[in-house]
Structures are given as structure tokens and as C-alpha cells.
Amino acid sequence: MDETSLKQSLAGIPVPEIRYFSTISSTNDEAIRWAAEGALDASMVIADYQDSGRGRLGRKWITQPGTSLTFSLILHPSQKELENFSLFSLLAAIALCQVVSTEYGLESSIKWPNDVLIGIRKVCGILVESSWLGNQVQGVVIGTGINILQGSVPSSESLLYPATSIEGELGFPVERENILGSFMKAFFSWRPQLGSKEFINFYENRLAFKNKEVTIVQPGQESILGFVLGISPNGDLRLKTGEEKITYIKAGDVHLRPVSGDNTPLREENHV
Ligand code: BT5
User: What are phi and psi of 243, to 5 degrees?
Assistant: First the structure.
């Protein structure tokens, strides 16, 4: 991967500027800095290797050089997009699901809010962060890590949840640039549909644990037990928590665990 091959793979996609690094700490950190300096909408930071890739709540995103895609897109939301701000975190997950199914014939699902799974294994993690100027959003940074080649899959002891790669699922290697180009096309074709019925339906059709009983564990709060129904128009998880009771879980950090006794393969993991 280099600047030339990246530009070729992004031909025809409205990315005004790319910053490519062979090694960086975290593409999100660079993107947040760049957003504050005035990066244009849809500018992109991409790295062959991150040595301090981040997940949520101080967790790590682990990659190896030359094996995965790690990039961050800077968006300046329009007024209409600001009304659906919380859905930005679902957009990249939708785009990747579409690419892996239409181009590679792989079934994927989304563990709410935005981990992409193939079978029971995580293939992609997404970290959305915003930069603010006073109470105005200056930019949204969508950081995406996709395991492409099998060498990108971290050892199991460093993981909370089993992981896989596109190569591992297909049985043959794929070019990172090809997936990037397809992902970006899908991302920008879904962007105008943020919050539309199609957007919510597409997401709900791929929602992992649908109709399954899960436990939601939120730091400092009592766990909630319920059946996954879908999401609300603003991306909250909709759970059936009683005969007539629906509970909405705000997008944020939760541990979503299948309940003991449910014998789907997913419940082999104790931390989903
Ligand atoms: C995420 O956090 O899944 C968000 C990851 C976002 C990574 C991108 S890469 C580009 C941009 N720059 C950054 O610095 N970050 C973004 P979370 O839901 O908190 O999951 C983190 C957990 O995923 C870790 O604790 C591990 O268990 C697991 N994990 C780490 N590396 C992994 C990998 N390569 N594949 C699958 N799982 C992994």
C-alpha cells in the first residue's frame, strides 16, 4: 500500500485529500488534529500500521503491518445529518456489511452498535469521535479497522471476543485497496440515506442476536435482561424487557451478553 495505489483505488470517490502514513500512533488522533486545522469534508487519514490503535474506553485495536485497513474519515455533518448524529456510528458498519456480502458473498452481522461480525467473529471495529468548538460539532471522525489478511488477527489472549479476517473467511487473500475502494463507494452511497427507512431496515436485518435474550451491562448501573427487537430511529437498541415493556438502550458502551441457557454458538463467548 502506498499513496499511488490508494489514490487509484479511490478514483471517482469524493475524497478531497488523503494523508497516508506507513506507521502512525492512531489514525483517529491524526484525523482529530486535522479536523481542528480545517480538513475538508470526507478527508481521510490512512496508515499501513498503527502502533497505538484505540478501541472504546481505552481498549486497544491491535494490527500488524501490511495486513489490515486502518483509516479515519473526517466528516462535517450538514444540518440534516446533525439531526441523525448518533447514526454516524452505524454508517461504516452498514457499508462494510454491504461490501462483504455483495462482493465476497460473506454473510455478516452487526453487534450493536457497530462491531461487524462474520459468524461469531469480529472482523471490523469502529470508533467514532467528534471534535467540538464550544457547543458546535466541528467534525466527526469515523475510525475503521478491518482485518483483511489472516496475519491481522490478534492472538486470542489479547481479545475479549474471537476475531477473524476477510482472508480467513474466504480462504484466499484479497487486496486491501480493493476492499477500501468498495467500502468507500458503499459508505458515500449510504451517507445521504442516514436515518432513512432503508438505512434502519438494512441495519436491523443484520442485527446480531435479533430476538435472542441478552444482558446489557452498563458501568455503575444494574444489568438489563431483554430480547433484542431492533433499533429506534436514532440508533438506540430496542429491547423487550417485559410482557408489555420496551426499554431503549442509549448508544454508548455496553457489554451485550447472550443469556445462559441460550444455546446459539454466540453464547460460547462470555463477553460479547
Ligand atoms: C473497537 O473498539 O472495536 C473500535 C476499533 C476502532 C479501530 C480503528 S482503526 C482506525 C482508527 N484509529 C484508531 O486508533 N482506532 C480506529 P471496542 O469495541 O472497544 O473493541 C476493542 C476490542 O476489540 C479489544 O479490547 C480487543 O478485544 C478487540 N480487538 C482488538 N484488535 C482487534 C482486531 N484486530 N480484530 C478483532 N478484534 C480486535
Answer: -45, -50
Residue ranges per structural domain of the chain: 3-204, 213-261
Burial 192-209 (b: 16+ CB within 10 A, else e): ebbbeeebbebbeebbbb
pLDDT tens digits for range 215-265: 888 777 888 899 999 999 999 999 999 999 999 998 655 566 666 544 333
3-204: CATH, from 2.30.30.100, 1.10.275.10, 3.40.50.880, 3.30.930.10: 3.30.930.10
Q: Ligand 1: which residues within 6 Å by Cβ?
A: 26-28, 50, 53-56, 59-63, 70-72, 115, 122, 125-127, 143-145, 147, 152, 154, 159-161, 163
The domain 213-261 having CATH identifier 3.40.50.620: the answer here is: no
Atom of ligand 1 lying closest to residue 160 CA:
27
In the DSSP assignment, the letter for residue 152 is: G
* pLDDT tens profile 42-63: 999 999 999 999 998 889 999 9
Strand order in the sheet with 224-231: 245-249, 237-242, 224-231, 213-217, 255-258
- What is the pLDDT, as a whole number, of residue 264? 38
Q: How far is the CA of 245 from the centre of ligand 1 (A)?
A: 33
Taking the centre of ligand 1 as the mean of its atom positions, its distance from the CA of residue 122, in whole angstroms, is 9
